[in-house]
Amino acid sequence: MNNNEIEKMNERKPYVIACIPAYNEERSIAAVILEAEKHVDKIIVCDDGSTDHTAQIAERMGATVIKHEKNMGYGAAITTLLRKALELGADIAITLDADGQHNPNQIPQLVKPIIEGKADIVIGSRFLQTLKEKIPTYRKLGIKTITRLANITTKLGITDAQSGYRAYSQKALQNIAPKLTETGMGVSLQILEIASQANLKITETPITIRYDVEKPSKKNPLAHGAELLMTLIKLVALERPLIYIGIPSAASLITGIALTTYLIWLFNKTRYFSVPIALVALGALFLGTILATSAITFHALITISKKLEQGQNPRTRESRTT
Ligand SMILES: Nc1nc2c(ncn2[C@@H]2O[C@H](COP(=O)(O)OP(=O)(O)OP(=O)(O)O)[C@@H](O)[C@H]2O)c(=O)[nH]1
Ligand SMILES: [Mg+2]
Questions:
Q1: Residue 18 needs a FRET pair 20 to 30 A away by CA distance; which of 108, 231, 285, 319 works?
Q2: Residue 167 domain-assigned (yes or no)
């Protein structure tokens, strides 16, 4: 945010909207809304195809409810919410879970750095406060691994890449909301990737999280982790395909060529044709070719889409406005 924008926001009270994704959360949604409304101007709930009374309860509690006809996933719910917040002219949007794990009374802590002009995105981190031992070990390990990997690609140096408790400035919403495509839990990572590309300022603030409020039908943590890993690979590989797909492709091709050379040398020397080596060589050459083709295709597609984004004609390299 530049100084003008900060001054403009400080002239009046910022318009803060809480965005709550909810999928079958009838047990907790009312309490979350009740607590959150003390700290925000408006609450929007995205009912993500719930089959229980989540939507009716949220409506009765006075929230604006946007319903997905069927369950589309956490990322789809977040996308719907952030786009709606932008459309409603939010100065700040807060996302928090509907299951009661996040404490709405911590909203002021998340909003503060944005009001002070110190950040465009504030992440509520579970790893910056003393209660961290309450997080189940396998989750802590999973979140930390994903965060470490995310930090390599985004270079943001954050402690909790997977937190759903976040605050976004209007500038962040404008940059992020239109670009979201991840429908699952990977959206948290995609947001960081976009934020890093757009040079948005990100800070973290300590939050507490409850693990004693969980629903019986939770997603398997292994499936959850695998989904995040896939997103990360997708984001990274697609962002720099020449490196992340090109290098494995080159390694595979070199292995294939080396094995083929060895095979020929062996045959010349001993008249023995090793079928296993031939198969591995063929596989490596095949894989290398496929990866090389993908790397070049992705690279071309990304270059074209980036040019289009900048309003340039990809063929002539001339700006549309000239
Ligand atoms: N799992 C899941 N959650 C959704 C979906 N759509 C919206 N949500 C909401 O997104 C929020 C986060 O979902 P959780 O399943 O609690 O995910 P989490 O907090 O990262 O994982 P846990 O640590 O297992 O609680 C909750 O408020 C859900 O109701 C969906 O399709 N799947
Ligand atoms: Mg949860």
A1: 231
A2: yes
Ligand 1 within 6 A of CB of 219: yes
- Residue 314 predicted with pLDDT over 60: no
pLDDT at site 310: 67
21 lines ligand 1 (CB under 6 A): yes
Q: For residue 156, report the distance from its CA to the centre of ligand 1, in Å.
A: 24
In a domain, 321, yes or no: no
Mean pLDDT across the chain: 88
Specify whether 197 is located in the same domain as 259: no
Question: From the CB of 45, is ligand 1 less than 6 Å away?
Answer: no
Model pLDDT, residue 322: 32
- pTM of this structure: 0.78
Query: Is the residue at 319 inside a domain?
Result: no
Q: Point out the ligand 1 atom lying closest to the alpha carbon of residue 78.
A: 7
Answer left, alpha or beta for residue 160, where phi above 0 means left and psi between -120 and 50 means alpha: beta
Are residues 232 and 252 both part of a single domain? no
Domain coverage including residue 275: 241-309
Portion of the chain with pLDDT greater than 70, in percent: 89
Asked whether residue 224 falls in the same domain as residue 265, the answer is no
Ligand minimally distant from the alpha carbon of residue 19:
1
Query: What would the pLDDT profile of 27-55 be if each residue is shown by its tens digit?
Result: 999 999 999 999 999 999 999 999 999 99
Kindly list the distances between the CA atom of residue 146 and the CA atoms of 161, 174, 203, in Å, as whole numbers in the listed order: 7, 26, 18
Nearest CA owner, ligand 1 atom 28:
22
Q: Is the CB of 246 under 6 A from ligand 1?
A: no
Domain count, the chain: 2
Q: Kindly state if the Cβ of 134 falls inside 6 Å of ligand 1.
A: no
Half-sphere exposure of 106 (CA within 13 A, CB side): 22
Alpha helices in 14-136 (DSSP H): 29-36, 54-60, 74-87, 107-115
* CATH number of the domain encompassing residue 196: 3.90.550.10
Shared-domain flag, residues 261 and 175 = no
